[in-house]
Amino acid sequence: MQKLVRIESVAAVLPEANVDTDAIFPARFLLLTTRDGLGRHLFQDRRQNADFPLNDPAVRDAKILVAGENFGCGSSRENAVWALADYGIRVVVAPSFGEIFHTNCFRNSVLPITLDAENLATIQSAAASGATLAVDLAAQSITLPDGAKVAFDIEPNRREALLNGWDETALILHRDAADIAAFEARQRETLPWLYES
Amino acid sequence: MPGRTLYEKLWDAHVIREAGDGRSLIYVDRHLVQEVSSPQAFEELRREHRTVRRPDAHLAVADHAVPTRRRDQPIEDPQARAQVAMLIDNAAAYGIRMIPLRDDRQGIVHVIGPELGLTQPGITLVCGDSHTSTHGAFGALAFGIGASECHTVLATQCVIQGHSRTMQIRVDGALPRGCTVKDLTLAIIGRVGAAGGTGYAVEYAGSTISALSMEARMTLCNMSIELGARVGIVAPDDTTYAYLHGRPMAPRGAMWDRAVAYWRTLPSDADAVFDRTMTLDATTIVPQVTWGTSPQDVLPVDGTVPDPSHAADDATRRRWQKALDYMGLMPGTRLQDIEIDRVFIGSCTNGRIEDLRAAAAMLRGRSVAPGVAAMVVPGSGSVKRQAESEGLHTLFLNAGFEWREAGCSMCVAMNDDRLAPGQRCASTSNRNFEGRQGAGGRTHLMSPAMAAAAALAGRIVDVRQDSE
């Protein structure tokens, strides 16, 4: 997985609640079987509207998206995160996230930052004014052009994994193989019907 | 030691180790594999030279992209054909059982898992699909995951998950005439909100829930994700065991007795403490219909479309206005004055035999209203055959409904079953998101009986007023 350490860019602002993964990545493109090049379908139906925030040329190169409550709710489609990442978005800042989307972000080197209303408002107004924001994962802060900093929380292990670009599957295979085998041996004794096929 | 909830018992029984950050490495007993969320997971296996740890723990079936017509022909859409072919090839390459498209048992993953007896109390079950919460109806810890987590499950039989907080939603009393579990489910979502369950595992309990059939419990647990909860569960009981007994993948003989003895230990202890509790009186439920673009935008059928100028705050006002604009509705419109173009009866929410019976019972020799296109898509081949053995297909066909083959169909609109822009649909599915049933399409969620009644009337109606 690609490392994520520091991201500096202007930010697009989409201040709507409950933006679902169907909106982020319409279902008909789920027929594509690769994970590359999906950015062209990001918000494809919403982008038909000229006023849609991501159509603003000023944020075409944004690596940061400032979103609303429950961003990424609904379908588990990881294609929503693949599309965001392929488009160039590496950080999503929101008051809350759909849970599966939130997990999918971490597995694709996209950092979901949860902020309370006050801090979110600060970031939102800075982003809306075209400011360049600097997200520093090691320092767990977002720096505004005037030097003001907004701190954010993140679980230490997830932070470590992003900073180092660790692959969770490889870690499990490397570290837990014996424990998994021991679990299966135990479960085969206690719940044997789960091993009849 | 205080008692434990059902969720905590399921969780504790599957933890391999703490993974830090309050997350744990969890063993996965069963994984359902479908064509849409699996290609990239298998691709990663190949790229990383990994194997499938335990092929017998997975079951593959195509449901999302498959056509619901002309099953004797090759799939017409080249992309869908390639995606289904990829599932067949991957299942064969890794020794995973696959139910072929032309097999009688084919159907939506969340319908066939229970039908086959693969879904059982006490297990962990995952699928790259958010409606995996359906299987919680059996007292299984079941949740949707992303495609790269599917890869992790294939390679390690495990997944790292955070422990959820627990919420009990307790429902007592009998559902009134004309009201079904779908109405109860929508009412719960309206009350909790689309994000109100985020971070929670919801356990549904109370006399109303105990009295529900397994099909109804599945409808309820299915839509837990629409209130943000990845997990929705019901304690296993005699209804659960009666449903499972004798199913092809359920334990048999002495093993069955041993399994039931274990399953009886699973329900939440009397002194278990939930992080949050909510109670509902089922006798107050009325038929529910969504008016907007989130399942939380739901109202009793005798209601009127809300007026944004009456919204409690600015954010809500903007959200309502945006939903009304998309839905093409004026504030104050009576729900029962809303005319519809299409009707969809099916999906992993309402594509089971009881749903089809409830819809068929509304027909009574009447016909679909002129100008309305209505279709029934059974949730599985087994549901379809059962319905045909009861003559339900004849009732639907005579009334002017189309009678299709099993699949996700117009719930997700990945095949050619989709709304045209601006078309309005009475749908028994689970999501009324913008474009969910086709770009520009407008969805009103409701129960199967309500959808059938809407098909006959050409507009949304109150099933309680549609009695002989």
Descriptive key words:
heterodimer, A: 197 residues, alpha/beta, Aconitase, domain 4, 4-stranded parallel beta sheet, globular, B: 468 residues, Aconitase, domain 3, 5-stranded parallel beta sheet, 16 helices
Low-confidence parts of chain A: none
* Biggest sheet details of chain A: 4 strands, antiparallel
Oligomer: heterodimer
Query: Looking at this structure, what is the CATH superfamily of the largest domain in chain B?
Result: Aconitase, domain 3
From the N-terminal CA to the C-terminal CA of chain A, the straight-line distance is 36 Å
User: Helix count of chain A, per DSSP?
Assistant: 6
- Which secondary-structure class do the elements of chain A indicate? alpha/beta
CATH class of the largest domain in chain A: Alpha Beta
**Bulk shape of chain A:** globular
- Give me the CATH superfamily of the largest domain in chain A: Aconitase, domain 4
Question: What's the helical proportion of residues of chain A?
Answer: 25-40%
How many β-strands of chain B, per DSSP?
19
What is the class of the largest domain in chain B in the CATH system? Alpha Beta
Strand content of chain A: 15-25%
Q: Which whole number gives the mean pLDDT of chain B? A: 97
Question: Any idea what the CATH architecture of the largest domain in chain B is?
Answer: 2-Layer Sandwich
Note the overall shape of chain B: globular
In a nutshell, what does this entry contain?
The complex is a heterodimer of chains A (197) and B (468). Chain A is an alpha/beta fold and 197 residues long.
